[in-house]
Structure to design on (464 residues):
């Protein structure tokens, strides 16, 4: 609790004073630091990952400038550290590109729209999330062959929605800000009018399919029956049962590790959820390759079951390493990186997975690593970016901007932020200029990355 009340007038004054540190127009600036080497940063990041999986990550990043951007959160964090900062801090998503927003089931079994990736979450300057989102809109717009004018409208829609939403949140009671959320049906209703009939039908089918993505569906897709028991199907290198990753004693040691991890993880849950999870027993586990930027970090899918094989539950235990922002924003207040991810997610999301928890674990190699645990699938859905026409992407960008504003309003001083942003579009246009400049840089970085692959400096494995 604050030692003394801070009035709204004082908070507004603080927001306007931040314009002296970083004028809103200054956010358009980006000057690459001399000697910057994004390829070396990515290679350094790979050293803490599973060696045989790193080429898959590189192969996925190589596909296009947009997939490269998705994996290049660290180089952008280093770049953002050289740009003007307002000093107004929030809980950052840390990797707020447009594909890290999407739908999932709330505990009340409603499909909600929110930020859905928190591996890099950390307190930091609010504008870093906005710039990461805006630049992703420019990069994705280029991938979709939008013109420069079309891309600018998309970016301004996203940043404008962020600014106007924050001003609305500044005037709302605090509890109303915390209760605010986006219903996916409302999002789809707006997007439908901006998609062609064929594309709208495809999106509707994908959304309907999302409502079937749960543990039962995962079991039907990821497992088979062997001697009357469910076993995870091997699909190397993307899904590999632990018995194939490690043999004999090593596999036994890893099972012991993961069993210990599960036991400790349950203790991080709310009491009613501890009671629920304790009714499940571990059946099998497998290593799974996930995402783009996350590839190479240790991720395990855990098949559990209750009621004698009739009620499966798939959990995912994912390694949490230090945020890419840590060297630029300061280390986390949490010594456990898994707790960092979970605490950030709870602060940012309107509703979180009921199974979300964390636990450190020491592996057979004697190294302690931090993990967070969640459901593998629970109606999770990402909007197909490649289907968007310019107007549809502009509407989607607006939803992402609103969602990001709500996250920042929850974790930061929404009154000061709104005062800093102001009523004009000065901030919006500056960020739009930055986004296009950074999209140019991203293309150069992608080309440099491809050249490093060709030269043998970077090993990449395509098609996975």
């Amino acid at each position: 609790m604050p030692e003394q009340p801070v009035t709204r007038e004082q908070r507004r004054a603080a927001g306007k004073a931040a314009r002296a540190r970083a004028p809103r127009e200054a956010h358009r600036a980006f000057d690459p630091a001399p000697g910057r080497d994004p390829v070396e940063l990515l290679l350094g990041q790979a050293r803490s990952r599973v060696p045989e999986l790193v080429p898959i990550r590189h192969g996925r990043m190589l596909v296009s400038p947009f997939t490269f951007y998705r994996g290049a959160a660290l180089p952008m964090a280093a770049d953002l550290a050289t740009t003007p900062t307002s000093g107004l801090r929030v809980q950052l998503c840390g990797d707020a590109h447009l594909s890290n927003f999407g739908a999932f089931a709330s505990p009340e079994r409603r499909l909600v729209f929110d930020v859905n990736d928190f591996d890099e979450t950390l307190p930091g300057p609010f504008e870093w999330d906005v710039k990461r989102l805006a630049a992703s809109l420019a990069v994705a717009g280029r991938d979709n062959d939008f013109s420069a004018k079309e891309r600018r409208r998309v970016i301004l829609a996203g940043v404008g929605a962020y600014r106007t939403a924050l001003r609305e949140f500044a005037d709302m009671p605090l509890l109303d800000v915390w209760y605010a959320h986006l219903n996916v049906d409302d999002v789809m209703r707006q997007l439908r009018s901006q998609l062609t009939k064929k594309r709208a039908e495809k999106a509707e089918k994908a959304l309907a399919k999302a409502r079937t993505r749960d543990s039962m569906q995962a079991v039907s897709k990821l497992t088979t029956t062997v001697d009357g028991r469910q076993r995870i199907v091997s699909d190397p290198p993307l899904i590999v049962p632990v018995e194939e990753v490690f043999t004999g004693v090593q596999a036994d040691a890893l099972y012991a590790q993961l069993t210990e991890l599960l036991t400790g993880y349950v203790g991080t849950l709310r009491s009613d959820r501890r009671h629920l999870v304790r009714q499940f027993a571990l059946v099998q586990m497998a290593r799974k390759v996930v995402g783009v930027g996350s590839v190479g970090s240790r991720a395990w899918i855990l098949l559990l079951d209750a009621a004698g094989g009739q009620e499966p539950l798939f959990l995912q235990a994912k390694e949490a390493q230090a945020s890419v922002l840590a060297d630029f924003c300061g280390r986390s207040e949490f010594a456990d990186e898994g707790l960092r991810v979970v605490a950030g997610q709870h602060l940012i999301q309107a509703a979180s997975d009921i199974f979300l928890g964390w636990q450190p674990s020491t592996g057979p190699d004697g190294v302690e690593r931090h993990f967070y645990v969640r459901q593998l699938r629970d109606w999770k859905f990402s909007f197909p970016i490649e289907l968007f026409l310019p107007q549809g992407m502009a509407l989607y960008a607006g939803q992402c901007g609103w969602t990001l504003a709500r996250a920042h309003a929850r974790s930061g001083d929404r009154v000061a932020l709104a005062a800093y942003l102001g009523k004009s579009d000065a901030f919006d246009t500056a960020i739009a200029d930055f986004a296009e400049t950074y999209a140019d840089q991203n293309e150069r970085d992608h080309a440099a990355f491809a050249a490093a692959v060709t030269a043998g400096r970077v090993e990449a494995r395509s098609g996975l």
